Structure formats: structure tokens, C-alpha cells
Amino acid sequence: MSRSGSPRNSPNLSRRALFRGAGGTAVTAAVAAAVPPGTLRQPEAVLDVAPVVRIGTRPAPPGSSLIRLTVNETQYELSVDARWTLGDVLRDQLGLTGTKIGCDRGECGACTVILDDAAVLACTVLALEAQGRKVTTVEGLTPKPDLSELQKVFWEAGGVQCGFCTPGMLMSAKALLDRVPKPTEEQVRFAISGNLCRCTGYTKIVEAILKASGR
Amino acid sequence: MSKPIDVLGLLNDPQFLFTWAETPGVVEKEAKVIEAFLRERYQTTPTTQPKPRYSVVGTRRLRPQDVPRLKGTAKFTHDVRPEGTLYAAILYSPHAHARIKSIDTSKAEALPGVRAVVTSKNVYDTGAPKTPIYTHPDRFILQDEVLFAGDEVAGVAADDLYTARQAVNLIEVDYEVLPASVGDPEAATRATAPPTFFAGAKAGETAPAAAGAEAVAAASLATAGSPTAARNLGPDFKSIKVGDVGAGFAQADVTLDGRYETATLQHGPLEAKSIVALWDNDQLTAWVSSQWTHGARSTLAKTLGVPISKVRVICDYIGGGFGDKSSTSVDRFAYITAILSKMTGMPVKLHYSRPEEFTSSIHKAANVILLKAGVKRDGTLTALHAGTYADQGAWNGASGSAQSSQESQQTVYQYGAAQFDQYNVITNRYRTGPMRDVNESSGVFSLEVHMDRLAEALGMDPVDFRLKNMTQDLSPLDKLPLTSNGLRDCVLKGAEAFGWKSKWHAPAARITGRKAHGVGMGVFASQKGSQSAPMSGVVKIELDGSVTVLTGVQDVGAGQLTTMLMIAAEELGAKFEDCQSYGGDSAFTTETGVTAASRQTKSGGTGIRLAAADAKQQLYALAMGPQPGNKPPLIPAKAVDELDSEGSVVFLRADPSKKATFKQVMGLSPNIIIGKATVVPPPSIAQRAFGATFTELEVDLDTGEVTILDYVAAHDVGKVINPYSIEQQFDGGSVMGFGFCLAESLRVDPTKGFSLNSNYENYPIATALDVPKRSRALWIESIDKIGPFGAKGMGEPVTTGPVASVPNAIYNAIGVRIYQTPYTRARILQAIREKGLRPA
Predict the structure, then answer these.
(1) Which of A167, B236, B480, B835 could disulfide-link B686, Cβ–Cβ 3.0 to 4.6 Å?
(2) Residues B233-236: contacts with CB under 8 Å, at least 24 apart
(3) Where does A110-163 have alpha helices with state H?
(4) Which of A169, A179, A174, A175 is nearest to A203 (CA)?
(5) What phi and psi, each to the nearest 5 degrees, are found at residue B366?
């Protein structure tokens, strides 16, 4: 029942090879005809050569739009399908898989990122809505190769178990601490009440955030 | 004095162990020797050997695996996407029971971007053998009979997820809707209930007798309604009898009946189930969100018809499991994805949506529990008769869940006589399977409320009632000696820490304004955390003296990889910092069973401890052996048992100044040292974890809201390996347990059987605002006779804890019994109004 499709559907054609074959910084235009929105999944490949990282096709195929957004202080330009959420783009187009999708319906908080200066759920923000705005993900929190102070206190306090809710939890905590440097325990609990965790019972996460605030 | 048996020698003899594992009859004699040894002596075995002093075990250790989790670089199956990955979506039955008359996939196939569609018509075309995929002979990867609303009908692979889901909606199915059993499990056994598959699905046919049908009729609780029909029972009916129950009740001064109900629950791991399948010719690489890479590997191999060696299962990080991703759960979604991958020649990824996770994954079985107990005036229990109806759902997946429900009931008290009837009931509600403690919390809830009622009827303090009847040294049913029992300490120390004597009061006696104050307690025994086969591990000493631990134990977030590392480091006398553990890949680890049932500290940990002991023997032999060029040995010793090690230094016990670092010793070796173990535990060992919990709470009489003010849980853990991890287990496990008590219930439409609350919004798992004000754990280290360094498993007992005491505390607050979990606000409010504490 397998159907063969257009050249892009051929299992023998490596997209990475196609990318390389197109050559240099002009890749985005060169592959426009053959590649659907956001197909190029290796932003690292062009990070060194362009101040604006262009992802995917240009001009955009029907149904998609070309947008610019700033993620972790890197500017990206890519064409997005109107249905794509910010979570889809971060994970599938930019390869930033630290942002997790737990429910894809705004209930669990695993996909929490910071948009400008507020914690938002990347699964319920359309990529188009993030146009021109500043996005910070867990990858942007981490000074390589070390952990940030917030991450360190999470570790020391025991605020991590399976780790799936952790990136979202960290982003909610950061958004809180950016706004309220010395929160009360109640404020901490409220700030992370949209981030579900099935492993920890929250106790040590709350401890960690209070510790990070210096309380 | 009799000659000591060389258990270490026996356990380390690979031939002996192999034959024991494979052909028990051949070595029955040896097995009996060990069993006798363990039973009569319970002296130290190589798996326990408590040390006088620990340098690693019992110290608080942060876990190396948590760093990638914090950085967002940890790769969950959710994050895996090989080049060219296609996305899968599945079509599910909207009916609780139906037969597919016809299925038309042409519109789906015509949708641009769709690469393959699989139904029962073509599922075996790629070469998978058409053999049953489950214990029941009628279960295939896809089939024409669907057994619950959420059963799989077809699968699609497409270029992206949107297209795959759109294609699923274009598949047209014509169903013949069949009678379905979607009521409670006890009702499903009545003669009037619609028959499910075990009872014969064809209309007008007499239900064939399930195994034990006559026994069921005979065993029904005389006082407890009419479960006299044998309809829809699973094949594993059991009635366990100890002593003369009739005589036991005849001796009783007070007898008490009760009917208790618990809800269907779902694990709700934050990462929904996920798989990526990729074929290279006849080799399958599958990234599976799994608590058991080796189990997933063997079930995939069997179902797809390839040798186990051709399948590699990888699960670097798993986003929670709680049983959801254990053995039985690598079923249809995984097989369908692997077949779509084979059909397309491309990697295919399936990641459950949250509603799919809630509906089509597995569930904790709802229970109806009938209890009758007899007691003398002085508080002595004379008899207990328990009948447990466990809703096995459509797939009989939680096989034995009635037994699990009764595990604490069978162990925690000594009864004069007892009878335990187990009805595993087949219905068309969901698919069941193991979920954290399987069903022990259901049995504990019913029994602890029942015991609280008995104590009250006698005017006894519930603590004194427990102390009078609790299990001592022997397991009550089989009369085997327990490997350890810290229950008395749990009750006494827990009561003291909680301040039971000063806090306990008469029911509904402390109402201030709209707040009713209550306290309650309860006890439990858990069979989870038992040593069980297989137990294996590999410990390597590298050329620089550092240590690598390879284990099939999956780190599901409870820090298992670090626990294994600590056990190896302690046994070897290696520095914690010099060791690293690896798991999550069937290609380089050994089969050591599923990381579920709290078993890996004791089972995988035993494998690792024995592997470390094996490596240590080799290291010591090297240290005391001649050096090249006839130089004297690094450490002069006649036998390896004259040596010891700590901090990655080997030394002569009699003269610790004679020493060499691991690095120096390994300098003598051209090869790394590989220590390994594959063992099975001795048969017929009674091993339990015990606990006693105490809850102080407030009930708001206007809203029905419950606020937990204080929770004290005394857990018999054997020996704490990593305090850091066990504290986390307690925090998270007890919060999940509070959820079982107060909030969680997965509901189905009572007539059609479809799911009503398959999402986090309506299936309320606790948030940071819903946790107890104060929560304290006491670790009772009873030193288990067979666990590594005396340890027991603790992942599930911490979850069972709350249900032992919260319902009794709510009764103590409002003076009305509620016999059904969860204790929702609505149920509590109704009880308050019935009591007249507030106007209706």
C-alpha cells in the first residue's frame, strides 16, 4: 500500500546531502522548489555563516508564511505552515527538543517557554504569533557546558526525576524570578501550578526555586 | 554445628544457575538446599552481607543522569527523529464492542502525503507471523472484532502528523455494534450482564463455564449480594482458604460486612507513549518509551517474526512510566508502527496524543471488594472472607490484579482463618495493565477502612487493634519466614512521630466553624519490591581503574542508574566519582527484567552486586598475583578473602599499609576486567515491604474540600541506598497516592462505554497547589535478608501509603463512612448532608 511520491519522498534521497549539494549560504533559495516548509532540520549547519539563520524554503510554498523570530538570541528566518505551533517549530524545525510536548492542549505546562518576558505554553501559541518576538527555551537557560544557578539548585534539591516536566518547570521558575526576585512559597506554588509533574510531588521543586531566590 | 552451606559458591556456579533457571526439576535438590538454608538460617548471603560500615550506600548522592535532564539535552523517545521520519496515527473504535463489517481506506490513501495504511486486511502482508499477540488466543495486531471504545482499527503513516491524522479521519468503517459490558465489574459477572469474549460473544449462546465457575458460585460471600453467576470471568479464578472460616466466624463476638469500590485510574506520565521504528533490511531499531528495553525487544521480535538478536531497543530517557510502559504495554501501537515502517521502508514515529494515552493505553483496574471479618471482644481477629472483583477490562491485561488487590489483605494481619476469592472480570471498559502498586491500594483501602470499623465497634484504639493483630515473623498464608518485618516499628515510631495519642479523638468531635478536624491511620504490606528473576548485570573495571556499570535496569526517573552504581561501588570498594553507569539500550545491557513492581533495587541490584563481587575477585587475584619479571605481588596475600577495598584502593585487611590503587592493580593487566552475573532468586521466599501511615486533615463542611495538614508515613525499606532518591520517591509517590484517595477516576459513559475524561483537565492529577501542608517519612531499616545490603524496593509502597489512612481520617472528621474512592468533594458533601452536619 506504500505510495511513491515526488522526489522528496524518495527514501534514497538524503535531505542533508541535498542541503550540502546546494552549497554555501544560498542554500535556502536553491532548494525551494523541492522542499516543503521547514524541511531543513539542521540549523547548526548554517549558524556559522549567517547572522540570520534561514530555515526551509523561500519563497514559501502555498499555505505557508515566511517569518522571523528570535530564539535564545539567535535570529531565525523560516517559512511556517499556518497550523504549526511555536512548539512544532522549536522542536521540529530548529531542533530545540528541550521543549517538551506533554499534552499539546495547554494542560500540562511541559512546553513552557518565555515569550518576550512571560511564560507561555508553546503548544498553544502559533508560530505565526511569535513573529518578531523573543523566545527563550531551556537551551537558552544553559551556559554551556555548565548548569545555570537555577538548574544547579534544582539538581541539589532533588527537583528532577524523569526530567520530562523539568524544562517547562525551569522556564516557569525563571519567568517568576525575573519578575518577582523574592517570591513567597505561595507565589512559587502558584507560578508552577500550571506545570504538571507526576514524579516529584513538587516539594523539592518548590524548595529549589525558593533557594534560587535566596530565601 | 552443621556445616555451613556455600551459598556464594552455589550462586556463582553458572551451570547450576543456568539449569536452575531453565529446568527447575533437574536441580530440585540443590534448590531445596538453598531454600532450606534461607528458611532456617537466613544468614548472610552474597546478595546481602550487611557491612559494618558503608562508604557509598546510605550517603546522599546527586545523580549524573539528571544533568542532561536539566539542560534539555536528554533524549526522550519523544525527541528522536531520524532523517526522513514519517508520522503515524491510529484509528480507534468508537464502540465498546463491535465487529468491523467493512473498512474503506481509499480516501485516506488518496490524500497527498500518505505513505501507507494498515488494517486487519493487510497487517500480515509484510511477513509478521499470524500468531496471537497476547495471552488470549483471539488477539492479533489488528482484527475485525473491537473490544472497547479505544481499541485499534487501522494505522496510517504520512509525511507529517497533520496529514496522518487527517487521513485517519478519512477511513470509513461500517461496524456491527455488539452488546457490551461497561458497568461495574461485580455487575458484569451476573447472569444478566452482556457476555464479553470469555463468556462467548455470540447472542443466544450459553456462556461457557470459565475456569472455576462452579467454585465461584460456591465461594461467593454469603452475606454480600449475589455474585452467583460465573459470567465474564477471566481464566484465573482462585479461592484461597486457610483454616476453617466457618469456625472462625462462629468464634467471633462481632462480625462486620462491607462493600468497597475503587476507580479506574491512569498513569498520566508526562511523556505519552512513543515509538520510532527503523528497519535496515531485517534488522529493527526501535526507540521505545519503555520501562523494559529487553522486554520490548523480545515482544517486538516475536510479534514481527524476527530473531531477538535482530532487534535493538533504545530508551535513553523515559518521561515517566508508573507501569504504563512496562511489559504488556509494548503492544499494538508499537507493532503497528513497526509494520508501517516496514511497509514504507522509512523510519516511522508514533507519539500518543494525551487523549490516546488516557483512553487507549493501559489502566489500573477498578475493584469491587466484599469483606466480612469476625473479631473477639478482646480484639483478636478470628476470620476474614474477602471477595475481590477486579475489572480486567477488554484485554485481561492486568492479569492477576485481584491477587494484587489482596496481597496486603493476605499478609498484614494474622487471622484465625481466612478465605480469599479472586474474580478477574472481563468487561468492555478500557484496557487494563499494571499501574504503580497494581491493585494493592484498592485492597489496602477496603481492609483498612474495615479494620477501622472493627476497632470502633470494639471501642479500641486503631493503633492497639493493629498491634494486636499484625503479622509477626511468618507470612500468614504460606507460613514462610519473612525476610524481614519492620511493621511493629513502623506503627510504634509512626504513631509517636505523629502524636497519635494526643491527636486521636471521637468521630466528628472536633468541628470548629466550617472545619472538621480528623485523624486516621492504617497499615499495609506490599509484595512489590520482591527479588524476582531474571537478575543480571555487568561491572567492568577499566584499564585506568575506573568502573563502568552496564545494566538492563531502566532509569525511569527514580535514579535507578545511580542506585546500581552505588551498589557496585560499595561492593567493589570503588570511589563513587570513579564509576559511571549506563542503561537504556538492549544492545549493550543484559536482561534483568522489567523496571516495575519496585523490583530493581532488589533484583537488578542483586545482579549488579554479584557482578561487582565477580569483578572484585578478579581484581584481588591480580593484586596478589606475581608481577611481570618475577617481581613480588603488589599486595602479599595468600587468599583473596584477606583483601579488602575502599575508595578505589585494595589493601590487606590485616595490614592496611599494604595497599595498591585500582589504577596500579589494573596496570598489571593487559585487559579490562569484566564481572558478570545472571542469577535467579531462590524459590518460595516470603518478602514484603511494610508500612504504617498517619494522616491529620481538615474537611471544609461547606465545600467538601480536604486539606491534608500532616502526613506521617513509616516505611519499612530494609536499607536506604540513596537518601536523595528515596526522599523523592516518597514525595512524589505519596502525592500520587493522595490523588488515588481524593481525586483521580477515569470514567466511561455508563451505557456506551466511551471515555468521559481523557485529558489532564478532567482527570485531575495533583498540581503544586494540591499537596499536603506537611509530609514526613520515617525510614524503618529492617535489613532484608536477601536484598542487596538489606534493601527493599520502595517505589510503590510510598504510593499505597495514603489510602491506608486518609479515608479513616475523613471518617474521623465528619463521622460518616464513604465506601468508594476517590473521596471527591461531591461524595464528601453528600455524606456531610446525610449526617446533617450541614443542611442539604
Answers:
(1) B480
(2) B233/B189, B233/B198, B233/B199, B233/B423, B233/B424, B233/B425, B233/B426, B234/B198, B234/B210, B234/B392, B234/B396, B234/B399, B234/B424, B234/B425, B234/B426, B235/B198, B235/B210, B235/B211, B235/B396, B236/B211, B236/B399, B236/B400, B236/B422, B236/B424
(3) 138-141, 149-157
(4) A169
(5) -70, 145
Please tell me the predicted confidence (pLDDT) of residue B399.
60
Chain B residues in contact with A193 by the CB 8 A cut-off are 767-769
Q: Enter the C-alpha cell of residue B286.
A: 526501535
Q: Does residue B106 have a pLDDT over 60?
A: yes
Angle (CA) B42 B45 B48, round 5°: 100
Give ipTM to 2 decimals: 0.91
Q: In the Cβ-directed half-sphere of A75, how many Cα atoms lie within 13 Å?
A: 8
- Please say whether the beta carbons of B470 and B488 come within 8 A: yes
- Which residues are CB-neighbours of B204 under 8 A, at least 6 positions away? none
Q: Give yes or no for A177 touching B (CB within 8 A).
A: no
Single-letter amino acid, residue B291: Q
User: Tell me, what DSSP letter sits at residue B747?
Assistant: -
Interface of B with A in 498-557 (CB under 8 A): 556-557
Q: Write out pLDDT tens, residues B18-53.
A: 223 333 333 344 444 445 545 444 444 555 567 889
Residue A21: Cβ within 10 Å count:
11
Q: Measured between alpha carbons, how far is B342 from B348 in angstroms, rounded to an integer?
A: 9
Closest to B388 in 3D by CA, of B364, B373, B375, B404: B404
Secondary-structure percent of chain B, ordered helix, strand, coil, rounded to 5: 30, 25, 45
CA–CA distance, A55 with A74 (Å, rounded to integer): 12
* Cα–Cα distance for residue pair B700/B702, rounded to 1 Å: 6
User: Helices A166-179 and A149-157, interaxial angle, to 10°?
Assistant: 120
User: Which residues is A52 bridged to in the sheet?
Assistant: A75
B348-371 confidence digits (pLDDT tens): 999 999 999 999 999 999 999 999
Range with lowest mean pLDDT among B7-16, B226-235, B670-679 = B7-16
Is the peptide bond preceding residue B534 cis, with omega within 30 degrees of 0? Answer: yes
Determine which helix (DSSP H) or strand (DSSP E) holds A129, and give its type and residue range: none
Q: Which range among A133-147, B26-40, B50-64 shows the weakest confidence by mean pLDDT? A: B26-40
- Could you tell me if B432 and B262 are in contact, meaning their C-beta atoms sit under 8 angstroms apart? no
Higher-scoring residue by pLDDT: B75, B36: B75
**Amino acid sitting at position B448:** E
The sign one gets for the Cα dihedral B810, B813, B818, B823 is negative
DSSP E strands in B220-273: the ranges are: 238-242, 254-262
Give the sign of the dihedral formed by CA B135, CA B137, CA B143, CA B148.
negative
Contacts of A158 in chain B (CB under 8 A): 724, 727-728
Is B115 in contact with A160 (Cβ distance < 8 A)?
A: no
Comparing CB atoms, the residue among A83, A163, A192 nearest residue B317 is: A163
B256's CB contacts (< 8 A; 6+ apart) are B371, B372, B373, B374, B375, B450, B453, B454, B457
Greatest mean pLDDT among A21-25, A78-82, A100-104: A100-104
Cα distance from A114 to chain B (closest Cα, Å)? 15
The three three-digit cell numbers of residue B195, written as one number:
457476555
DSSP code per residue over B581-596: EE-SBTTTS-----S-
Residue of B nearest to A8 (CA): B84
- B551-610 residues touching A, CB cutoff 8 A: 556-559
Compute the distance between CA of residue B688 and CA of residue B482 in angstroms, rounded to an integer.
7
Distance (Å, whole) CA B386 – CA B249:
13
Give the strands of the sheet with B649-652, arranged side by side. Answer: B643-646, B649-652, B655-661
Enumerate residues 6+ apart whose C-beta is below 8 A from B802: B693, B695, B711, B713, B734, B737, B738, B740, B741
Q: Mean pLDDT for chain B?
A: 89
Q: DSSP letter at B204? A: T
